[in-house]
Amino acid sequence: MKNNVVMNRIFLRAFALFVIVVSSACASAQEGAKPVPGTDGNKYVPYDQRKGNESIVYFTRDLSANGLIKAYEQVCGNITGKVGVKLHTGEPQGPNILPREWVKALMQKDLPNANIVETNTYYKGGRYTTAEHRKTLAINGWNFCPVDIMDEEDTTALPVVGGKWFKFMSVGSHMKNYNSLVMLTHFKGHTMGGFGGSNKNIGIGCADGRIGKAMIHTRPGEGQWSITEEEFMERMTESTKATLDYFGKHTAFVNVMRNMSVSCDCEGTMAAPVVTPNVGILSSNDILAIDQACVDIIYAMTNKEHHDLVERVESRHGLRQLSYMKELGMGNDKYVLIDLDNGGKRITAAEAAKGLKPFVQEK
User: Fold this and answer.
1) Dist. CA 216–CA 224, nearest whole Å
2) pLDDT, tens digit, for every residue of 120-143?
3) Domain extent at residue 121
4) pTM to 2 decimal places
5) CA distances in angstroms from 275 to 68, 307, 344, listed in the order given
6) 208 and 268 share a domain?
7) 199 and 318 in contact (C-beta within 8 Å)?
8) Number of domains within the chain
9) pLDDT value of residue 220
10) Residue 127: predicted pLDDT
11) Which residues contact 167 (CB under 8 A, 6 or more apart)?
C-alpha cells in the first residue's frame, strides 16, 4: 500500500511537470522563437584557432587510487557541506566503469561523509526502476557508502538561464539536499553524444529518469531517441548548465581516461571492445576545459590509436558539446595543462598523448 501511495504521488507530480513542459513549449511557439540547432559538431577546432582565457587542468598518468586522489585534491577547495559524488555506476557487470576500489579509497580519505548520487535511466534495463537500480548497485560493488538515487521519490525543476531549448530542467528532487557536487567521470565514447565526459555525466546523469531525460532525448510524437546530433548536444548541455548554476562554485571535475570504448557504460557487457589506449586522469574546476582537454588528447593520438573514437565523436556531431558550453559561458576551451608527474610543468595535449601503450584488458 505504501509503495502504491508513493508511486501515485510521483505520477501526479510528474504529470503536473509534464503539463508545465508542454505549456512552456507552446509559449515558445507562440512567441515565434523556434530554436535552431548550431552547426559544425563534426569539425574539430585546433588549439591555436581558439580565442579567450585559459583555465587550469591537472594531469597525471597514474591510473590508480593514488592517482585519482592526487587529481581530486588539486580541485577540491570549494567542496563544502553535504557532498554528492556523481559517477556512472554502470549496468550489471559493466566491464569499463570506474574501479570501485579507487572510488572507495578517495571517498574514505577525502569525502568520508559524502554520498554517491545517481538517477534512474530512461531506457529499460538494470537501472530503470529504483528497485532494479539497487540490485545493480549491489552487483557492481557500490556498497561501501550510501548511494542516493536522486529521483527515487520525486523530481524538481531547476532554471536554465540563457538556454534556447529549455526554461528549466527536471532533475531528481534529492539534488537540493546537497551543497557541493563532485564529478568522477569515466571519459569514453557515447552512442548518441559521440563522447561522454563531465558534460554528459551531469546533463544526462542528473536529469531524472522519466521527465528530464525525455526532455533531452525525445521529440513529442516521435521515437524515444528522436533528438540527435547538434540539437541533442545542446539540450544535454543546457541540462548540465542548470545543475552547475545551482551549485555555483561548489563543484569539481575529474575525468578518468581509461577503458575508453566507443560505447557508453549504459551498454554494459554489450559495449564495443576497447581499442583506444589508456591515458591518465585529469581534473579541473572548469567543465569545458577538462572535457576539451580530454578531446584534445584523443585527437593528438596516432590515427591507429584514435580512429574509432574520433569516428564516433564526429559521426554523432559530438564536438557541439564543447562549442555550446563556450557559447553559454560555462568555461574556457583553452587551458594550461599541468603535469602532476613532472613537477607541475606545463605540457601540451600532444605531450600527454605521447608514448601510450596499446590497450590491454585488465583481468
Assistant:
1) 10
2) 999 999 999 999 999 999 999 999
3) 54-352
4) 0.92
5) 23, 9, 30
6) yes
7) no
8) 2
9) 94
10) 94
11) 24, 159, 160
Closest CA to 192 of 218, 172, 166: 218
Task: Kindly state the cell numbers that stand for 269.
Answer: 557487457
Q: Which residues contact 40 (CB under 8 A, 6 or more apart)?
A: 319, 320, 323
In one-letter notation, the amino acid at residue 202 is: I
Do residue 12 and residue 114 come from a single domain? Answer: no
Q: Flag whether 49 is in a domain.
A: no
Q: Do 235 and 135 reside in the same domain of the chain?
A: yes
* Whether 157 and 28 share a structural domain: no
- Reading the block at residue 156, the C-alpha cell is 524538481
Q: Say if residue 90 is in the same domain as residue 27.
A: no
Q: How many other CB atoms are there within 10 angstroms of residue 282's CB atom? A: 32
What backbone phi and psi angles, to 5 degrees, belong to 252?
-150, 145
Amino acid at 208: D
User: Is residue 60 classed as helix, strand or coil in its secondary structure?
Assistant: strand
Residue 349 CA to residue 341 CA, distance in Å, equals 15
For the chain, the average pLDDT equals: 92
As a whole number of Å, the CA-based R_g of the chain is 19
Rounded Cα distance between 360 and 363, Å, is: 9
* Residue 189 falls inside a structural domain: yes
149 in any annotated domain: yes
Residues 347 and 226 in one domain: yes
**What stretches of the chain show up as alpha helix (H) in DSSP?**
2-30, 65-72, 100-110, 130-139, 198-203, 212-217, 229-247, 287-300, 303-315, 320-327, 349-352
pLDDT at 268: 80
- Asked if residues 298 and 282 have their Cβ atoms less than 8 Å apart, the reply is no
Q: Are residues 28 and 59 in the same domain?
A: no
